[in-house]
Amino acid sequence: MEQEKTAQPAEAPAVQQQQQEKKAKAPKQPKAPKPSQQPKQKKEVAVVGGKKQGAELIGITATKDGNFSAWYQELVLKAEMVEYYNEASTEMPSTASMYIWNTIRNWFQARIAERGVDEASFPMFLSKTSLDKEKDHVEGFAPELAWVTKAGDKDLEVPVAVRPTSEAVMYPYFSKWIRSHRDLPLMLNQWNSVVRWEAKQTTPFLRTREFLWQEGHTAYLTEEESAKEVRDILELYAGVYEELLAVPVVRGKKTEAEKFAGGAWTTTVEAYIPANGRGIQGATSHCLGQNFSKMFDITVEDPVNKGEKIHVWQNSWGLSTRVIGVMVMIHSDDKGLVLPPRIAKLQAILIPVGITAKTTPEDREAHAKKLEEIRVSLKKAGVRCDTDLRDGYTPAWKFNDWELKGVPLRIEFGPKDAAQGVVTVVHRHSGEKGTIPIDDLATKVPTLLEDIQKAMYDKADASFTEHRLVLEDWEKVLPALNTKNVVIIPFCEAPACEDRIKDMTKEEKPMLGPDGKPLPSMGMKSLCIPFTQPKELVSGTKCLNPECKAEAKSWTMFGRSY
Amino acid sequence: MEQEKTAQPAEAPAVQQQQQEKKAKAPKQPKAPKPSQQPKQKKEVAVVGGKKQGAELIGITATKDGNFSAWYQELVLKAEMVEYYNEASTEMPSTASMYIWNTIRNWFQARIAERGVDEASFPMFLSKTSLDKEKDHVEGFAPELAWVTKAGDKDLEVPVAVRPTSEAVMYPYFSKWIRSHRDLPLMLNQWNSVVRWEAKQTTPFLRTREFLWQEGHTAYLTEEESAKEVRDILELYAGVYEELLAVPVVRGKKTEAEKFAGGAWTTTVEAYIPANGRGIQGATSHCLGQNFSKMFDITVEDPVNKGEKIHVWQNSWGLSTRVIGVMVMIHSDDKGLVLPPRIAKLQAILIPVGITAKTTPEDREAHAKKLEEIRVSLKKAGVRCDTDLRDGYTPAWKFNDWELKGVPLRIEFGPKDAAQGVVTVVHRHSGEKGTIPIDDLATKVPTLLEDIQKAMYDKADASFTEHRLVLEDWEKVLPALNTKNVVIIPFCEAPACEDRIKDMTKEEKPMLGPDGKPLPSMGMKSLCIPFTQPKELVSGTKCLNPECKAEAKSWTMFGRSY
C-alpha cells in the first residue's frame, strides 16, 4: 500500500496554475469529473489549501446514529443525489440519481416487455368529472391535487388536475378497448411523473411533490390470471431491491387496514432501516379485483356462458424513485453515500498518489501515462471508471470527496505501487484495503465489484434478519421496538385491532436512547403478512394483542415505519 | 400464389362459436393481436358476415389526394396511432405509436450517451418569477401556458405554470453548477412531456396540447465546440428520419426570420410531403450563443486570461413525436398506414388462407401447426411477426385490416402453398407480390424487410428530389408551388424581404387543381438555407424577389409549409 489516507501538502498556487494551463491544452487529457460529481466548495478549498479544512468542508456534519433524519437530508444534498427546487418547494433527482433510476428502468422494462406489457403514454391532465367517477379512490388524493385553472390569461371552462395516479385517465379507455375476451389480457405500463402537492414537509425520494415512477395497469379474464401477475410483478420489485440495490426485502400481503383502498388486495415488499429500526414499504402490486371494472363498466361476454357479462379482473403496480431513498438510508454512512456497484454510474475512481512538488515533470508524465493505461484496461473490462486528475487537491481531499459520492471502489496508484506493479484498492462499504497486481486488474476488479455487491446485500440481510423478532409475548413488543426491531406476531388481521395496537405501542413518555435522546414514540403498524411465515401458526393461537379475544389468522410483521 | 385478395365465404356463426370455444381452451394458441391492433367494428362485422361490408367498415373514406387533411385525421384514428382525449381536447399516442417513439428514443439515447450527455429530470412546474427572467423567449409561449393556481381547495400563493420547454427551469442550475471551465462541457438531456395549451384546433402529432419530446441543453467554453455539437446533433436527427423512418431530409440553417427567437442560430432538418407539396420542419438544433448565459449569469473564469469572465456558449436541441406525423404523411396511402420495417412493432403478419367450411378438422389442425412453425422460425430469425388466427373473419377482411395498420409484410399461407413448400408475400408499401420457399424464410424475410425499408426511402427521396426546384426566374415560383414543389432560390436572407415574399406568393383567387378544388393559397416561407447548396452562387447574383435590390447571400429553400 502506497498511500495512507493522510494529508499531502497542497501544491503552491503558482504550480497549480501552470498545470491547469498545461492540462487545458493537452488534447488527450482524461475528462474532468462531471459537475454533478464535483465539490461546490473547491474554490474555498483551493484558498485554504490544507487537508483538514477540505475534509471538513465537504463532510456531513450530522451522524447517522445521532440524528438520522438530519443526516439523511444533509447526505442526499451533499452527495448530490438531489437538488432543492425552490419553485415547488420540493426536491428533484440529480443526474447521478437519474443514472440509478434508468438502470432500474431498463432492468424492469426488459422484464415486463418480455411478459407482453405494452408501453403507453396517457395524458397528464384529467377533469373533475372523470375524477368524480371513482370518488372513493380519489378521496385520499383530493387535498393534494394540483389544479390548472387558466391557459394563458383565460380561465378554463373546465379546470383539469395534474394526475396523482392514472386510473381515472386510463380506465375509460379500458372500457372502450376491451370488447371481447380476445382483447385480454390488456397489459399497459407507463413511465412518467405524477404530482401530489403535499402540504407536509417533503423528504427527498420518499415524499416529493412531483416524482418519477412506473404505473402498470392490466386487465384479465379470470381472477387466477390476475392473481398470478400480481405475484410475478412483486417478484420483479423484489429483484430491483435485492439484485440491483443490494437491499433485502420481505414479500407479503398488506392487511385490510393497510391495503390500497380501491383494490381487492395488496402485495408489498418491505425493507428495514437498521439505523432507526423502522420498516419501509418498498413497492406494491395490487389486485384491484372487479372494483374498477364495475365503476368504469369494463366487461366482456363470458366465452363459456354466452350472453353473460364478465367484469374483468384488474391489477395495478407501481415502483417509484423512493427505491433510491431506501437504498441510501440502508447503505450509507457518516462519510457519505455508499452505492452498490451494479447501479453506480462510477464504479471505481482512480486517484494518483505520492506525487509531490518535488516530483520531476518527467516522472509526472510517466505516472500519468501509466494511470491512463490502467483506466483504459479497466474500461475495456467493462468497469465504469474515471481518473481524478484535478490539480490543487490533496489525495486525502479526493478520498473524502469520492467517499462522499459513494463510489464503490477507490484505486490508489503512486510511484511505489508502480515499482511493485500493483494498485491499492479501498472498498467504500467496508473501508477494507488490499492490493491487486496491475496485470490482473481486468479480471480481478469486475469480480471484486460483484463481491462488494454481495457483501453489501449480506450485511443488510444479516441486520434485517437479526432485527425481525418472532414474538409470542406481548410484553416483549415495546422493548423490541425500542431496540430497533420489527416484530412478527400472531395477529387476528382485524382493522380495529390494528388501530388499537398502534395506540397501545405509542409511548407517552418516550424512553431515552443510549445517546440520551428520546427514542421514536410512534405506534407500530402492520407492514405485511409475510408470504413465508416464520413457522406454523398453531391452531387456536390467540391474537397477541392482550385486549383482543380473536384468534390469530397469521404471523404478521409490525414495526414503526415510514 | 395461393390466395387472391378476394372474398372468402364467412363461416356460419355456429362454426365460429365452436371454434372460439376450442381456441379459448387450447393452451398453445398464438396470442390474439393486441387490442390496439384490433378492429373496433368487429362485432358488427361478425353479424353481417360478408366481405365487402367488413372492408368498407374499416377503410378510410377520405383520399390522400382528394382531401389530405381529412385523410390524415381519419387515418391516424382508424389505424390506431392516436386516441382522442376529450378531457384536454387533444390527442394522445397509442401503444403502437409509443413503440415507434421508443425505438427512436433508444436509438437517439444510445448515441447521445456515447457523447457523454447525462440524463436529467427537471421538474414540470415553474413560477412566474423565473419565467419573467427570460421574457423575450417566453413571450411566444405566454398565451399557451397552463397555470396551476390551486392545490386541493387552497389557492397557491405563487401560481406555477406547466413547462412549455425547460430553459427557465434548467438554466438557474447551470449557473449554480458551472463554476469553472473544468465543469464544461455540461451536457444534459431529458425525455418528458411539455404542455402548450393551443387555442387552435390540434393536429395529431403535429400540434397537440401535451406532447412527448427530448430536450437537450448543453454548455461549452468556446463557440467552436458549441457549433460542432449543434451540427453533430442535427446529423443524429437526420439519422432518425433517414435511417429509422425512411424519410429523406434537407439539412440546413434557418433564416433570421425563422430561427428560434432566443438563440443565435438554428439548424434544421426539413422534410417534404409529396401529397400536398408542403415542406415540414423535422427537428431543430439551436446554438443559443451567449444570450441565455448572460440572462442567467452562467460564467466561468477564462482559463487563459485569468480574472476575465467568460459567458458560456449554450445549445439546445429537441425532437418530438411530430416525427411520427411526418412519417405517416409521407408513406401512408388510401388503404391506411404504411410503416417502415425498422420501426414497425409488427413487421410481418401471417394469415392462413384457403381454409373453408369444407376443410376437415384434421387438415385445419395440420395447417395451424405448419403456420406456427413458420411463425416460430421467423421469430428466431429476429422478425417481429404474429399470426392472425381470428375466427369469423375472411382473409380479405384481415388483409384490409392489416393494410390499414401498416404492417410492412403480409405472409399468406394456404394448403396449396403448403403443397409447394412456399408462402406468398405481399409488400404493404407497393402491393408487390411474390413467393418465398419456406426453407428460405429465415434468411430471405429479414433481407426483404431491409429492401422494403430502402425502397420506401428511395421512393420518398426521388419525390423530394423531383419536387425541389432550383429556380432563377421569379415568374416560375408560383406555378412551381401550385404544382406541389418547393423551390430553391437566390435570396438576400433579410427578414423584411422574406415577409414580402410570403405576401407576394399568397393568391387572392387560388387556382383550381385538377380535381376542381382550390389549391393551397398560403404564401411560401423559407424552410432553410441548405448546407449543401445546389450550385455555386455567382457573385453579384440578385435576390430573386423582383422588388428587392439586395444581393443574394445564398440559395434558400422556400415552400408552403406546416
TrEMBL record, chains A, B:
Record organism: Coniochaeta pulveracea
Domain Aminoacyl-transfer RNA synthetases class-II family profile: 100-340
Catalysed transformations (reactions): tRNA(Pro) + L-proline + ATP = L-prolyl-tRNA(Pro) + AMP + diphosphate
Protein name: proline--tRNA ligase
GO molecular function list: ATP binding; proline-tRNA ligase activity
NCBIfam families named among the record's database cross-references: proS_fam_I
Low complexity bias: start-end ranges: 7-19
Alphabetized InterPro entries for the sequence: aa-tRNA-synt_IIb (IPR002314), aa-tRNA-synth_II (IPR006195), aa-tRNA-synth_II/BPL/LPL (IPR045864), Anticodon-bd (IPR004154), Anticodon-bd_dom_sf (IPR036621), Pro-tRNA-ligase_IIa (IPR002316), Pro-tRNA-ligase_IIa_arc-type (IPR004499), Pro-tRNA_ligase_II_C (IPR016061)
SMART domains, alphabetized: ProRS-C_1 (SM00946)
Biological process (GO), any one: prolyl-tRNA aminoacylation
Lineage per the UniProt record: Eukaryota, Fungi, Dikarya, Ascomycota, Pezizomycotina
Similarity comment: family membership: Belongs to the class-II aminoacyl-tRNA synthetase family.
GO cellular component, as recorded: aminoacyl-tRNA synthetase multienzyme complex; cytoplasm
SUPFAM superfamilies, sorted: C-terminal domain of ProRS, Class II aaRS ABD-related, Class II aaRS and biotin synthetases
Keywords: Aminoacyl-tRNA synthetase, ATP-binding, Ligase, Nucleotide-binding, Protein biosynthesis
EC numbers on record: 6.1.1.15
Protein's UniProt keywords contain Coiled coil: no
Highest rank taxon of the organism: Eukaryota
Record region (Disordered): 1-47
